[in-house]
Amino acid sequence: MSATHRRYGTRWLVLILCVALSATLLSAALSQPAQGSSPGDSRLANNPGDVMRPEFADIIEAALPSVVTIAVEMSVEGPQRLNFPRGRGPGNDELFQRFFGREFAMPQPPAARVHGAGSGFIIDDAGYIVTNHHVVKDADRIVVTLHDGREFLAEVLGTDPKTDLAVLEIDADGLVEVRFGDSDLARIGDWVVAIGNPFGLGGTATVGIISARGRDIHSGPYDDFLQIDAPINHGNSGGPVFNTRGEVIGVSTAIFSPNGGNVGIGFAIPARQAARITSQLRADGTVDRGWLGVQLQPMDATLAESFGLDAATGALVADVVSGSPAAEAGVEVGDVIIEFDGQPVESAKGLSHLVADAASLEEVRLEVWRHGKPKTLRVTLGKVDEPVRVSKSVDSPSAIGLELAPLDHTLRARLRLGDEVEGAVVARVESDSEAAKQGLRAGDVILSVDHHAVDSPHDVTQAIERARGEGRKSVVLLLRRGDSQRFTALSIA
CA of 309: how far to CAs of 304, 312, 371, in Å? Predict the structure, then answer.
């Protein structure tokens, strides 16, 4: 062999040895447990190519025995229906009137039996099961089927329609329970596993991530859902959503489905809320919530500036219920509640959650923003009878575009307003004006401008001109529509 061949042969040999050594080192590195974990850590996959994915099989295997199928049966009564030619039938047919009179009623048919299905999970091996209120609502008979196939009749201990939660009890042994995790620690992007009974198929697991937090889907006054993209369908309702530690961080309750099937957007009640509610349902069968007695409106940047606040946070009091705890404590229309019992109030929805989480008859401290400075009030909460109403914020305007009329006897009767209501009536709103964009409409009553009561259109005009003379760009109107009130900031530039 020539010197040249020997030289190139040596180089190839060195190259082959380097590649072999690199492959050996890479294989050894991938076979080692990840830092901070052990070879038996079930949260990491054994497949090196999937090292960041949790080992879902272990999570599901441990969780499945705690998930149950719930079958319900209920009676539905309905009136007998008969089809008649147009203009004929009981009440307007001469033959029917002659023999049966005008008040003819058809006999009621026997009640129909309707069946439904959902999911649930065991939170105590003594036989306590969590599910959705809507799964067991009006049920005459509830049958719980365990993962091992055993069936038991269930009793409803309590339900809470406002959060769509319910607690059942069965008399069974050998139950496997799961525990609630801390949903406040769950982050967007965290892996989750949903287990339930979609379409009556029985225990089915799906996997996804938390895709959003704090969703309000307008299903109730305390909406604060986790949004997940793990596929859930009809029958998953009431089923648990697990994190990678096998803890329940949510309860499946709803899907967004424009076509009737799963489109990757589901909603789960967060464990923080579910744990508190179900604990009360287990103990008392009901939920004790505090009640303040105010109508709230969210803040926006324009309103915050008008009230002299640095940020659009807090909850604006649009109305105070007469005789309510808020009224007794001295809360006034136009107050911005910025702190509740030491906790900052970020929004109107946030305040409703804080009040609901507090117990009735509990004394709390309110920090309100009134006339450009903070004020502290003490209030003893009442017991909630109906949810706190929360108005929706709207876009801020840049022009007025209003025609006003005095609130005379005719308009007062037409709008069904008592003599105690004073103000100026919106007679017309110009199309494309900022008042129209703000949502003002004919029939609204302007009660105050910049927190000063008005009794006539002239008062409104004067208040606006005074604000313009002070170089201000907007005024705050308190509007009444029907039985509800709200503030809106109206640009006068």
Answer: 5, 7, 10
